[in-house]
Amino acid sequence: MTNDIYFAGGCFWGTEHFFKQIKGVLSTETGFANGTTTNPTYEQVYTDTTGYAETVRVTYDDTQVSLTFLVKMFFTAIDPLSLNKQGHDQGTRYRTGVYYTQPEQLEEIKAVFDEEQKKYAQPIVVELEPLRNYYPADEYHQDYLDKHPDGYCHLPLQLFQWARKQYDNNE
Q1: Calpha distance 164→48 (Å, rounded)
Q2: pLDDT for the residue numbered 167
Q3: Where are the alpha helices (DSSP H) in the chain?
Q4: Angle, to 10 degrees, between the axis of helix 105-117 and the axis of helix 67-76?
Q5: Nearest to residue 154, comparing CAs of 77, 99, 91?
Q6: In this predicted model, what pLDDT tens digit does every residue of 14-34 receive, in sequence order?
Q7: Taking the domains of the chain in order of start, what are their residue ranges?
Q8: Options 3.30.1060.10, 3.40.190.10, 1.10.357.10, 2.10.70.10; which CATH number does 2-169 get?
Q9: In whole angstroms, what is the distance from residue 161 CA to residue 85 CA?
Q10: pTM (2 decimals)?
Q11: Nearest partner of 74 among 53, 52, 54, 56, judged by Cα
């Protein structure tokens, strides 16, 4: 069955490319989630006045990959203790979060959050909220690292290779 989950992991170029490596992920799309305006532009979101987070919609086949696995993978690609900052990118638009679309997803996601929190003395600062709204980014931002392989990315290139290999460890 096909499902969607939304991940905010800092700059959406790297987050999108990361999830594209995972078997069972059918498609990805960069966009903006959980803000206060209608149909924001990148330039508006960049001001940090709209409340949006750069977010990636991940469409996956849950017969091939579990939501639990995807959320665990997300935590390997972020610093869960960094508020409004991932890599060199700073601002509320770069906050981390998992935004779900179905209430039944919450328990499964929460279990991963609880497991992740046990690794740290400080509280993790990753949002866990229902998706309130989402708008796709313009075409320039879609599949950015495929179109610009030497483009900016806050994630190390080795992480993409590692993600491709993790399917065999998928629970």
Answers
A1: 33
A2: 62
A3: 12-20, 42-46, 67-76, 105-117, 144-147, 157-165
A4: 40
A5: 77
A6: 999 999 999 999 999 999 999
A7: 2-169
A8: 3.30.1060.10
A9: 24
A10: 0.94
A11: 56
3-state secondary structure 20-40: HCCCCEEEEEEEEECCCCCCC
Are 3 and 67 in contact by the 8 Å Cβ rule? The answer is yes
What does DSSP say about strands 89-90 and 85-86: parallel, antiparallel, or unpaired? antiparallel
Give the tens place of pLDDT for each residue, 29-74: 999 999 999 999 999 999 999 999 999 999 999 999 999 999 999 9
Q: How would you label 77-96 residue by residue, b for 16+ Cβ within 10 Å and e otherwise?
A: bbbbebebbbbeeeebbbbb
Name the amino acid, one letter, at 62. D
Q: What is the pLDDT of residue 171?
A: 46
Q: Which residues are catalytic?
A: 11
Q: Give pLDDT tens digits for 117-164.
A: 999 999 999 999 999 999 999 999 999 999 998 888 888 888 888 888
Residue 50 gets which letter from DSSP?
A: S
Range 109-143 burial, b when 16+ CB lie within 10 A, else e: beebbeebeeeeeeebebeeeebebbbebeeebbb
Alpha helices in 62-156 (DSSP H): 67-76, 105-117, 144-147
